[in-house]
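Example record used in the benchmark description.
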Amino acid sequence: MAGSWATVLYKPHGSVEPANNFLISDSDYVEALTEIDIQTPIPDIIKERRIGQTFLFIGCRFNDQLLRSYARQIIKRSADTHYAIVDPDALSRNELRILLEQGLTPLAIGLPAAVEILITH
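Model output (structure tokens):
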């Protein structure tokens, strides 16, 4: 079904919609990780579409090893430039270093303003 969509929104922590399947507790993570190949945790539709593409990371923090692994897997075999909307007041030096190492350009803009720009342009 997702193969016919023009845009795919990938939420590695899950979502309330459509299946009420989200990760909150440590046990949720353990269960999810036992069901996926940790070396390639990215859905096939994302792997197929990432080739040559630029990604915009919205609402992601890079202070968590699992999220960094997801980001590295997503941008593998994709374009060289990617962006991450970040809160400059919450961004640690380590997160900034990781962003730059992975070729992610940090965009210091509030999430509400970023969403407004995405919706209207």
